[in-house]
Write a structure and sequence with these properties.
- The protein has two helices and 28 strands.
- By secondary structure, it is mainly beta.
Length: about 400
């Protein structure tokens, strides 16, 4: 870990993690496991018929110790730690199996450490959970155990929730951020220290994606340019130095960026099919050996990478051949390779070649296969793997949403 690491940031991160673990007192839950059908549905056992009828998944997000997924019918489901109401079911009861959030339909969801935000069909934005730093964007710092609408706009397209700040993009291509701004991660300057309603980041109208780290944020604009801002304690902005940025700064001059993911103090991105990472490297989360990097370094020579996820100190990415790879910090098995050994190079997750859906990783990981089946692995202290237990798993296990 770099000597330039911001110790105060790390201490806050560790305290937040301990709080999540301590608060994960689990309620009784049950999980219907998918069974392999060897006969027609008319002859299937009741449990098999229930699994067959269970909703499939179109997207997934991993929070600090909770998970949320949108089913292919638009339903929103969350499970895991719920100390701040981040599951959105109106309680603070933790769940070790998926529970549906209301009856509305949704198009996009993202989970922070202790809060969750999602876009409903129709373009309204809703957040719930921890709100100490205004990260829910509802004009208050009041914790919410059920979704509360962010303003009145109906043009929200996608949202990304960090540990204590949130950013979202509207259909007009504008970018908005709110929440904690101690390290200028909102991209609006050094003030305000906390914003409890969305603030527009600059005047650009060509943002296509955004990713929130602990103290920094990165986004991609139309044309494939990459921009980062906030803390650069370990070079996580990719600008070749350790200087923080109060507004979006372009990472190099290259175009062709199609994906970016901000972790605790590192960042990874996909550019023209090649995989690049930069920032802190204490656990090998950059996919290379050595110390921190202040500018993007290519991981291997493959040019078939198509999806990237990073949070905390672990990274995962998938290739166009459907294989899944993870690396970095691994004490809870979040790399998914059957071990708890930190990895400084991408390690393949099993042998499956059907990982072509959504992908998310923090201290646990989840991903979707071609059949819209959801699989999770890693830390399970809050029941975030959705298997009805709090036992960690170092390899993927399937999660089935209730019918």
């Amino acid at each position: 870990m770099s000597g330039y690491q911001d110790g105060r940031l790390r201490a806050r991160w560790r305290r937040a993690t301990r709080l999540l673990v301590a608060a994960a007192a689990m309620s009784a839950g049950s999980l219907v496991l998918t069974a392999t059908l060897t006969a027609g549905t008319a002859n299937a056992a009741p449990a098999q018929r229930a699994a067959l009828a269970a909703p499939t998944v179109s997207s997934v997000t991993a929070g600090g110790a909770h998970t949320c997924a949108i089913s292919t019918d638009g339903g929103l489901w969350c499970w895991g730690s719920n100390y701040a109401g981040q599951l959105g079911d109106g309680t603070t009861t933790s769940r070790s199996a998926p529970t549906r959030v209301g009856t509305a339909t949704w198009t996009n969801v993202d989970a922070g450490s202790g809060h969750t935000c999602a876009v409903r069909t129709g373009g309204t934005l809703w957040c719930w959970g921890s709100n100490f730093r205004g990260q829910l964007g509802d004009g208050s710092t009041t914790t919410r155990s059920a979704p509360v609408q962010v303003g009145t706009a109906t043009t929200w397209a996608r949202v990304d929730a960090g540990p204590q700040h949130t950013c979202a993009i509207r259909t007009d291509g504008t970018l908005w951020c709110w929440g904690f701004n101690r390290t200028t991660q909102l991209g609006v300057g050094a003030s305000p220290y906390v914003a409890n309603t969305p603030l527009q980041v600059g005047t650009a109208t060509d943002w296509v994606s955004v990713s929130t780290g602990y103290g920094h944020t990165c986004g991609i604009r139309t044309g494939g340019t990459l921009w980062c801002w906030g803390s650069s304690s370990d070079g996580q902005l990719g600008l070749g130095n350790l200087a923080p940025q109060t507004a979006p700064a372009q990472v190099g001059t290259a175009t062709g960026w199609t994906g970016v993911a901000a972790g605790y103090a590192h960042t990874c991105g996909v550019r023209s099919g090649a995989l690049w990472c930069w920032g802190e490297n204490g656990y090998g989360q950059l996919g290379v050996s050595g110390t921190y990097r202040t500018a993007p370094v290519q991981i291997g020579t493959a040019t078939t990478w198509n999806r990237i996820a990073a949070s905390s100190d672990t990274s995962c990415a998938s290739r166009t051949d459907g294989t899944l790879w993870c690396w970095g910090k691994n004490p809870a098995g979040q790399v998914g390779d059957g071990s708890t050994t930190h990895r400084s190079a991408p390690a393949q997750v099993g042998t499956a070649t059907s990982w072509t859906g959504g992908l998310a990783v923090t201290d646990h990981g989840c991903a979707i296969r071609t059949d819209a089946g959801l699989w999770c692995w890693g830390d399970n202290s809050g029941g975030q793997l959705g298997d009805g237990t709090t036992v960690n798993r170092s390899t993927p296990a399937q999660v089935t949403l209730p019918a």
